[in-house]
Every structure is written in C-alpha cells, then in structure tokens.
Amino acid sequence: xxxxxxxxxxxxxxxxxxxxxxxxxxLVSHAPSMGDVTEESxxxxxxxxxxxxxxxxxxxxxxxxxxxxxxxxxxxxxRQYSPFVWTVNGMDHIPAESVYAVFxxxxxxxxxxxxxxxxxxxxxRLLTRTNAPVYHADGCIQEPREHFNIIGGILSxxxxxxxxxxxxxxxxxxxxxxxxxxxxxxxxDKGGFNIHYNVDADNIREISTPEEALIYFFLKxxxxxxxxxxxxxxxxxxxxxxxxxx
Length: 246
Fold this sequence. Notes:
The chain has six helices and eleven strands. The chain is of the alpha/beta class.
C-alpha cells in the first residue's frame, strides 16, 4: 500500500498561508488597506478549505427584532438552509440563526485586540435567534432544536507579547465575560489555541507549536463545527412581521 505523508501535506498548507499573509503585509504599507487584504486572505483561505455547506463572509449579523451586531470581519454561516442574506450598500447582513462562528482579524495579537474581539463576539451572541420545527416530506415534524453557542475567535499574524500565550494572555482570556469568550484562534507566527471554559474549574487552554499553528487551528475549528451540527430552522413568520401586510 502506498503511503501519503499527512504531516508534510499539512505543513505545506501552513507555509502557503503564512507566506501569503506575510507577503501581503510587506507589500501593502497603508494600514487600512493592509487590514482589508489580511481579512480577505483569511476569508478566501477558509472558504477554499471548509466543507461547502459553510459560507465565509464579512458582515453584520441581525435578528428578527431588528437589532444588529457590530461589523464582523469573518462570519462562518450556513449556505444550505439560510433563506436569505441581505446586501445593503455592498455589505452583507446575515440572520443570526444562520451563524456558526465569528472571528475578528488583526495584524497583531495583544490584550487590546483580545478584548476588542470579545466585544465583537458578544454583539453577535446577544442577538435573539428563532428556531422553528422542521417539516419532512413523509409528514414527520421534527421539534425545534436548542440553540448552540456561536463559536468566537480571533486570527492574527503575530503577537506583540514576547510570550504569545503566557500570563498576560491567560489573564485577559479569563477576565472576559461568558458572552465575550474567545474559544479558538490562530497567531500564525506563534501558535494556534483552543479553549474550553469551565464554570467550576480552571479553563482548559490547548496551544499548538508555532510550526503547526494554522493546521492545528483549522482542524480544531472543523471539530467544533462538526459538533454543532446544522443551524436551527429560521422562523420565517417572525421575520415577516416587519412587513405591513403581515
């Protein structure tokens, strides 16, 4: 039987993404443009490698009450079961029910960017999500599923801390309120991280090596997405109440 070197394949992907993001930072000197290029690099990379059931966008997230999140750099949302995404003045607006995960994208990783990312994530988790029964062709009705906790994360190229995941990182992560929790992230030059929060015990923080930062992050993200399953069905009637005819 022939042998396929999975480790070498994953390392190759890591190097490609790192080179792409590093080159973008070197070539684009204007700060706002650099941020836009970096965000698009992460979005296009995830869209290429995530299963096709997921869509990756920069967007605002909205609910049926008309409330809206802050602008989110990277939203992973449902492609198959979402009946609508509104585009207003060139910016997507995605119903909260369709969202699996949200990420803040930064050039550098530090206390300020972690706290800022937490606020962005919180603005999405505070939105109200509907859930409706699912009607099958055979006449069976599946009861509405419970809402899962939307994954929150941060993506960056480097860290301003000498030790990216040392005490300052731990203190900042542990100080975030539960709606601002950052579950997963990648500092491309330092490592990937995956956090499990515990109410009655210490949080579990898993950190990768710098050499495997991107692949570690990607595989942990895939695992988290798999465990979420499918997004709840949207209660269309509640959104339709915005119309005078309804």
